[in-house]
Amino acid sequence: MGVVKLILEIVLVVLSLLLTLLILMHKGKGGGLSDMFGGGLTQNAGSSGVAEKNLNRWTVIIALIWVAIIITLGLFAKFNLS
User: Fold this and answer.
1) With contact defined as beta carbons under 8 Å apart, do 73 and 8 qualify?
2) Is 57 inside a domain boundary?
């Protein structure tokens, strides 16, 4: 079980970095600090293309896998499966 735990931890780190990049690639929805400094003036109102929809799908899929791995690692720790 130690090898499985190590692999899950490595995958978790990779997915964490990937998830961070995917979240940063999303365009802002407004109302944040970017609007305060004029960043919201260049946004298109409500337009969402195919690329944005695919980015949303990938972000949700990666986030669900990320959560599943965290729960699995938590169960390993709870039941002392090392």
Assistant:
1) yes
2) yes
